[in-house]
TrEMBL record:
This is Histidine phosphatase superfamily protein (Branch 2). InterPro entries: His_PPase_superfam. Gene3D superfamilies: Phosphoglycerate mutase-like. It comes from the Eukaryota.
Length: 246
């Protein structure tokens, strides 16, 4: 239903005395009705291979990125950086041209070096999918020789690394005493310990599926793991919901 139709329906209902509370109206605009002037992308590094977070300090280890993140950047490039599409961002340089960051692109990433660099690495991979290499990315020397950037015209997209010790916006829990204390209160809670004890048999069956990592309720997260017996699925789901609820 378009905006004009929605207003007409609302007016008719009001004049007839009908209540509009239980009659939701959905207004859908088409791409032809608007111009895309920009977009904000808040993306979690879903292309990681594995991740372990210490339940007491929340320090990250055993993490590596995979090529899967390129799928996201390919999708974003096809939607927002293709000049032939109505979803193309007005005024931005298309992905096939020379990269221009002046006033067009701002990239920020959590850079918790040396504890965790996977987010920064993942961001760099994402930008390379958005702006792939092109021979147009070159310079001409004074003697007339044209030099193409390495790797076939690699585009150096600036990534602003944010140190969590200096800016809490990307990850406010880093080294946060209040948060760490709250976590310890949860772990010491009688109900939490009771759930952990009751799940001991379940945890004893997990070593073949989690690569030798510590197996306690404190480490329970919702994540992808190798194929596991369906008999474990219901217990996994119940424990995950329990930890999130607590």
């Amino acid at each position: 239903m378009g905006p004009d139709s929605a207003r007409a329906a609302y007016k008719a209902d009001m004049e007839s005395g009908k209540s509009c509370i239980h009659q939701p109206v959905v207004c859908i605009a088409t791409m032809s009705d608007s111009t895309v002037i920009g977009f904000v992308l808040i993306a979690r590094h879903g292309d990681r291979h594995e991740n372990f977070q210490n339940p007491d300090t929340f320090a990250v280890s055993q993490t590596a990125i995979t090529p899967l993140g390129k799928q996201l950047s390919n999708f974003l490039r096809s939607v927002y950086l293709d000049r032939s599409l109505p979803s193309y961002i007005a005024g931005i340089s298309p992905s096939t041209s020379i990269f221009n960051s002046t006033g067009q692109v701002a990239v920020y990433a959590d850079n918790d070096f040396p504890n965790d660099t996977v987010i920064l690495d993942s961001t760099a991979a994402l930008t390379q999918g958005l702006w792939p290499a092109t021979p147009l990315q070159n310079i001409t020397l004074a003697n007339g020789t044209t030099i193409v950037n390495p790797l076939g015209g690699y585009k150096y997209v600036p990534v602003n690394g944010i140190n969590p010790d200096e800016n809490v916006s990307p990850k406010g829990t880093t080294d946060c005493t209040t948060f760490l204390n709250c976590a310890q209160v949860l772990y010491n809670w009688t109900l939490f310990q009771e759930v952990s004890t009751n799940a001991s048999a379940f945890f004893a069956a997990l070593p073949p599926y989690v690569g030798g990592r510590p197996i306690e309720l404190e480490n329970a997260v919702c994540d992808m793991i190798p194929p596991y017996p369906l008999s474990l699925l219901s217990t996994m789901t119940a424990l995950r919901f329990t930890v999130e609820y607590l």
